[in-house]
Amino acid sequence: DLVEHPQRSITEGCDMGRIHEQPTHVAQWIHRNMTASSIVEARRQNFAQYVEQLAGASGAHVLQATIPEGGAPYVVPLWVDGLDRANKIYASMRAARLPVFRWDQVWPQTPLIDGDAGQLWRTQVLQILCHQTLDAKDVAYVASATRKLLEETRQDGGVSPGDLI
């Protein structure tokens, strides 16, 4: 069997012709002003702050709470119990423009393999960005909003994105 999404293509809106264009001003600034070691350290700090602030969250846990030596994490993988709940939280976080994504779009003709955790992870795992441009205040806000969603969806099954502000 193949996973199919007849509604739309995963590549819809993907303009590969842009790869030859000049980098954005932000990308140029980052390249000029941040060293690789400062980027790695900022991501590690953001990751650690998320792990600390999401510890003990209602019905969720960070899948890997430690970073290998020298690792530069891109996201914090947060497992959310319950498919409906994970969907509600993800939708609310996206609507509130929080830095989160998940592997919910599957490439056409991706094979279904027995025992493949990816099928479950694409809906249950929220990937919260720990990008180096986020500061401690940003991370605290995202972690707090995420905890609030986790608590509220545990109690009544729903929350409005406006409730996060």
- Overall 3D shape: globular
Largest sheet, in brief, is: 4 strands, antiparallel
Major β-sheet strand ordering: 2-3-6-4
Helical proportion, percent range: 40-55%
Unreliable sequence segments = 1-7, 157-165
The proportion of strand residues reads: 5-15%
Give the H and E element order. Answer: EHHEEHEEHEH
Number of strands: 6
- Mean pLDDT, nearest integer? 82
Number of helices: 5
Q: What is the distance, rounded to the nearest whole angstrom, between the alpha carbons of the first and last residues? A: 43 Å
Structural class: alpha+beta
Radius of gyration, rounded? 18 Å
Description:
With 165 residues, the protein is α+β, with helices and mostly antiparallel strands. It is 42% helix and 12% strand. The strands form 2 sheets. It has a 4-stranded antiparallel sheet. Strands 1-5 form a two-stranded antiparallel sheet. It is globular, with a radius of gyration of 18 Å. It starts with a strand and ends in a 9-residue tail after the last helix. Residues 1-7 and 157-165 have low confidence and may be disordered.
